[in-house]
Amino acid sequence: MSAQEKAEETNRDIVTVTIADRIATITLDDPATRNSLSRNMMARLQKILDEIKTSKEVHVVIIEGKGPVFCSGHNLKEIAAEDREAAMLALFEQCSTLMQSVVHLPQPVIAKVDGVATAAGAQLVASCDLAFATESSKFATPGVNFGLFCSTPMVAISRNVSPKHAMEMLLSGEFIDAAQAARTGLINAAVSAEELTERVMHFATRIAGKSPLTVRIGKTAFYQQLPMSLADAYAFTSRVMTENMQTHDAREGIDAFMAKRDPEWQGK
């Protein structure tokens, strides 16, 4: 690689965003590090999510990875080079903030996986609201193999799959295929490579056509009620539905349904 080519590679944006038909597609594009979650990658992703959060133009987000690896997790070279405890903690806190930003984003986020997702890469998949993968895709939390247990990825994964399946991944460090990931709940479905884009866009388009206010209310309430007791969850969601019913879009949706016409959402 020439000096000019190296400079171009260094300055190239490792995360790109395209917006069309109310759908934002975020592409991880750092093949040299297998789309690792380096500090730079996480900072760029965080900035993009912060911008999308307040966007009225974006109703749905898709996250994909360019190349054979969706995301390889933390950049091990960065971790190995860091010997200060405070800086190491800041690195993992940066990642934790990023994952929570995905969960708390008002817009639904869909992981589109065609390749390998390991460690914090699998954590990113688990943090998304929906996830679809090609049948050849693989997932793993291999930290235990390197003496660094995948404790932070464990948080997202254990909130998607059963404890025993989560521990199987965490303790063995072995890959699971997309079919098993679907069976255990890490992803929604394993599909053929030819079908992946169609399946993801089917859901993205359907969701983008709903009231953005209603979707935002529902997604927020979903994650808020998860840790509650059964009684508290019902009390909380009863209040949420009551408040939802006071919105223009709820009344418009019911009126449109009864009149057998398409609703005209105003997002209020």
TrEMBL record:
- Any one GO molecular function term: hydro-lyase activity
Query: Which keywords are on file for this protein?
Result: Fatty acid metabolism, Lipid metabolism, Lyase, Transit peptide
Keyword Phosphoprotein among UniProt keywords: no
The lineage's top-level taxon is: Bacteria
The protein's matches in Pfam families, at most eight in alphabetical order, are given as: ECH_1
**What is the purpose of this protein?**
May play a role in fatty acid biosynthesis and insulin sensitivity.
Q: What is this protein called?
A: Enoyl-CoA hydratase domain-containing protein 3, mitochondrial
